[in-house]
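mind reviewing these C-alpha cells:
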Amino acid sequence: MTNFLGIYLKDQLALGVAWRELARRSRGSNQDSELGRALELVSAEIAEDVDTFRTIMRRLGIRPDPVKVGMVMVAERIGRLKPNGRLASYSPLSRFEELEFLVMGLQGKKQLWGTLRDLAGLGTSLPDIDFDALIDRAEHQLRTLEPYRVRAGVEALELR
C-alpha cells in the first residue's frame, strides 16, 4: 500500500462524513413527507457506508484524519448559513441544492467503491467486503433520490 492510498482514503472519509451530515440535515428539513421518508432510508444507508469505509481503513491500518473530518463538519454547518432566497425558512432552492449535492455525492460514492475494488486492488485483498453490493446500493440510492431532485429543480428553478 502506498502513502497515496492512505491520503486518498482519508480524503474520501471526510467527504463521506459531509454527505452523511447533508443527508441528515435534508431528512430533518423534509420530515413528514414522501421525500423525508426516502431521505430517512438513504441517510441511514449513507451512515452505514461511512461505517463500512471506516472498517476498511481500520483493516488497512489507516487512521482517519480528525482535522480533515472536523473541517468538513464545520464547512457543512457554515453552508447552512448561505442565502437561499428566504430570510429565515427552508426554501425550494435549499431542497433542490441539498438533493443536487446528495446525488453528486452518491455518484462519487459509486465510483469510489469501484476504484477501491479495481484500481486499489481491495476487491482481492479484502474479499469479504462486497464492493459490488456497495456499488448496487449507491445506484439504488441514486434511483431513489433522482425523481425528487428533478421535481425540486423544476419547483425551484422554473421561470414563472
Observations:
- The two ends are 55 Å apart (CA to CA).
- The mean pLDDT is 90.
- Helices lie at 3-29, 34-60, 66-79, 92-119, 122-125, 131-157.
